[in-house]
Design a protein that fits this description.
Oligomer: single chain
CATH architecture: Orthogonal Bundle
Distance between the termini: 30 Å
Number of domains: 1
Radius of gyration: 17 Å
Shape: globular
Order of helices and strands: HHHHHHH
CATH topology: TorD-like
CATH class: Mainly Alpha
Number of strands: 0
Largest sheet: none
Helix content: 55-70%
């Protein structure tokens, strides 16, 4: 077993989990199940000492269930849960949560665009979706943690490392912490216990707990998150791209 022996290894492990989660909530491509099976096994083995028992349990369940599904089964489950339009049960878009009108939604998307642009990442034109898709936000955290790991490995100095850390904390505070756990809870309810999205939702919720605790943050908001109607201006940003991933070229250094 590979042990975490340095801050660099720890940050790289965090980055790998974010990358795994980002892939898990995309519309499934043919190779996705195999990648997720291998990824779950690898994460569970190489990062065991840094993960909570819940996270390790969910990784094992994902690997087990995904290995029996295959590409068609995984795609069928995705379509059954999320459909081909925005689901009102568990929409994977931040601005569908507790946003009263299109102006607030536009503000969320604008702020996300500023976050992404500040770190030199751009939407991938190959795939079309909104910048507030869960997979995009998770991939951005993968980018930020990868940049921190790069800065540590190449001795770029404490200032650049802290820049990446502060960006991670800010992105959690202003974006993911507001809705990721609420999405996970809704997804688990929608999917049911037999779906592979049950352990995937559990992994997302448990890992967000780990990340928030790492930064000493509480999950916000304290009030239950309200999902807005999918009929409200759901095409306001249909030209924006999602991951796979949907974020484009990443500069090597912070």
């Amino acid at each position: 077993m590979t042990l975490i022996t340095s801050k660099y290894d720890e940050v790289l492990a965090r980055s790998a989990v974010y990358e795994f989660l980002s892939l898990a909530f995309l519309y499934p491509e043919e190779e996705a199940p195999a990648l997720l099976v291998d990824g779950a096994r690898l994460l569970g083995k190489t990062n065991a000492e840094t993960l909570t028992p819940d996270v390790k349990h969910f990784l094992g369940e994902i690997s087990r269930q995904m290995s029996t599904l295959g590409p068609k089964g995984f795609e069928d489950e995705y379509v059954e849960i999320f459909g081909h339009t925005i689901s009102n049960d568990c929409p994977p878009y931040e601005s569908e949560y507790d946003q009263a009108h299109v102006f607030q939604k536009t503000g969320v998307l604008s702020d996300l665009s500023s976050f992404y642009g500040a770190f030199g990442v751009m939407p991938n034109p190959a795939l079309k979706d909104r910048l507030d898709h869960l997979s995009v936000e998770l991939e951005f955290m993968h980018v930020l943690t990868a940049k921190e790991a790069y800065a540590l490995k190449h001795n770029h100095g404490e200032e650049k490392v802290m820049l990446c850390r502060r960006a991670q904390e800010g992105f959690l505070v202003y974006h993911l912490a507001h809705w990721a756990k609420a999405f996970a809870e809704r997804l688990h309810k929608k999917a049911g216990p037999r779906s592979v999205y049950a352990p995937l939702s559990g992994l997302l919720e448990s890992y967000m707990d780990m990340e928030l605790a790492k930064f000493g943050l509480d999950a916000v908001p304290e009030q239950p998150v309200r999902v807005t109607s999918p009929e409200q201006e759901d095409n306001e940003c249909d030209a924006m791209a999602s991951p796979s991933h949907g974020i484009g070229t990443i500069p090597e250094a912070c």
